[in-house]
Amino acid sequence: MTTAASDTRWLDAAARLSTRARPASYPNPGVGCILLQGDRVVGRGWTAAGGRPHAEAAALAQAGKEARGATAYVTLEPCAHRSPRGPACSDLLVEAGVARVVAGVEDPDPRTAGDGLARLRHAGIEAGLLRSPAAEASLAGYLTRTRHDRPHVTMKIAMSLDGCIAMAGGESQWITGPQARAHVHARRAMADAILVGGGTWRADRPSLDVRLPGLGERSPQRVVLSRGVAPDGVTIINRPEQVAQLEALYLYVEAGANVAASFLAADLVDRLEIYRAPIIVGAGRGAVADIGLERLDDAHGRWALAERRQLGSDSFAAYSRLR
């Protein structure tokens, strides 16, 4: 017997599975799919590198004949449009004979937008949406790109207890410890692009790659916010709003004070990730420059805690923008 609670649990599991698709699935969203017979998983899949095969196709291929009569939990509504790269996932689910489909998010792509679920129902399959915050969060890049025509922006700031990102003279390596720095590299590996300011680029020439065993190939494209000339292998944008031009679903911003202020003032930050080291710097460089805030009341109600954990001696907290 299925319940809303068990459906939510399996959608949450599909959302966790979908993280394996990032960022290699670009330009397609990273989707997760789990096929269940009773309480037994018979197939699972996530969007492959380059966007094909889709998660449903991968899960159905793994399940084989056991897909017949199964329940499919998929983070995004199965697509309804055929393309030269592959069949529509709604058609594949019909052909496989699944009995039920539970999707976490309706696809905003006008080529599907409800038609995927409608096609399943027309074939006699019980199909519906169960709103899943986990599924929606797992699709943040795709939904932000579709709804707002820009990538989802995560801003990372590493600071001391008193809000400093560097000594007064500019020394900043290292504020946080090795566990926090490894976590940053894991977060880089989930992004399509990584951005720093022109000052940071000129002073440090950071590699902006992923330095974790086995994940080096996931290093994102490098972007610099500057009015200078783009070096080889680096994209230059002049204003934060130009992130819309990037070929990316997920942008990771490693911000100095001025870059942080410019993105926050433009209201382009969707997720704020703060690493805080148990040190006091004193007369150091602050984390964020002036963002034009005139009243303290205007600062409230903008951010909600999304995640918190300890990384060695450092603390990590992530906040989602409330819109």
Automatic annotation (TrEMBL):
Q: Which UniProt keywords apply?
A: Hydrolase, Metal-binding, Multifunctional enzyme, NADP, Oxidoreductase, Riboflavin biosynthesis, Zinc
- Please give the family membership noted in the entry: In the C-terminal section; belongs to the HTP reductase family. In the N-terminal section; belongs to the cytidine and deoxycytidylate deaminase family.
The residues the record assigns to binding NADP(+) are 158, 174, 200, 204, 256-262
What does this protein's record comment on cofactor binding? Binds 1 zinc ion.
Q: Which species does this protein come from? A: Qipengyuania citrea
Ligand binding (Zn(2+)): 54, 79, 89
Which Enzyme Commission number(s) are on file for it? 3.5.4.26, 1.1.1.193
Origin superkingdom: Bacteria
Tell me what reaction this enzyme catalyses.
Answer: 2,5-diamino-6-hydroxy-4-(5-phosphoribosylamino)-pyrimidine + H2O + H(+) = 5-amino-6-(5-phospho-D-ribosylamino)uracil + NH4(+); 5-amino-6-(5-phospho-D-ribitylamino)uracil + NADP(+) = 5-amino-6-(5-phospho-D-ribosylamino)uracil + NADPH + H(+)
Protein name, as recorded: Riboflavin biosynthesis protein RibD
